[in-house]
């Protein structure tokens, strides 16, 4: 299975499907199923059963919410030019307290700038 390079909070653009071209923020990532939940993308109508809450208010009816989308159908948006890009990690060695320490930063392949 391929490594998922998308994290919660990233701004992504949809590359394929009914919402192609739309952008949104990643709400959650399911690494086992290789799926992400994107805010405002792949919205579906759910029929929920009527019931009552502890306060006595009615619940249920039609609820519109986001459904997961496959990781291969989204790409991280590069903040410099607002276009989709792949990501890679750059490893830098930093000296702290007299010791060498490796620091990893995510970088956009398109521009080479930090994400």
From TrEMBL:
InterPro entries: KOW, Rib_uL2_dom2, Ribosomal_uL24, Ribosomal_uL24_C, Ribosomal_uL24_CS, Ribosomal_uL24_KOW, Translation_prot_SH3-like_sf. SMART domains: KOW. Residues 79-100 have a biased composition (Basic and acidic residues). Pfam families: KOW, ribosomal_L24. GO terms for molecular function: rRNA binding; structural constituent of ribosome. Residues 5-32 form the KOW domain. One of its GO terms (cellular component) is ribosome. GO terms for biological process: translation. Residues 79-115 are annotated as: Disordered. Keywords: Ribonucleoprotein, Ribosomal protein, RNA-binding, rRNA-binding. Part of the 50S ribosomal subunit. One of the proteins that surrounds the polypeptide exit tunnel on the outside of the subunit. One of two assembly initiator proteins, it binds directly to the 5'-end of the 23S rRNA, where it nucleates assembly of the 50S subunit. PANTHER family: MITOCHONDRIAL RIBOSOMAL PROTEIN L24. Belongs to the universal ribosomal protein uL24 family. This is Large ribosomal subunit protein uL24. It comes from Knoellia subterranea KCTC 19937.
């Amino acid at each position: 299975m391929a490594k998922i390079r998308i994290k919660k909070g990233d701004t992504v653009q949809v590359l394929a499907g009914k919402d192609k071209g739309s952008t949104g923020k990643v709400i959650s990532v399911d690494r086992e199923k290789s799926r992400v939940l994107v805010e405002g993308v792949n919205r579906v109508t759910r029929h929920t059963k009527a019931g009552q809450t502890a306060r006595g208010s009615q619940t249920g009816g039609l609820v519109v919410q986001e459904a997961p989308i496959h990781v291969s159908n989204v790409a991280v948006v590069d903040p410099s030019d607002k276009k989709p890009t792949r990501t890679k990690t750059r490893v830098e060695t930093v000296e702290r307290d007299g010791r060498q320490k490796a620091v990893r930063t995510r970088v956009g392949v398109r521009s080479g700038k930090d994400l």
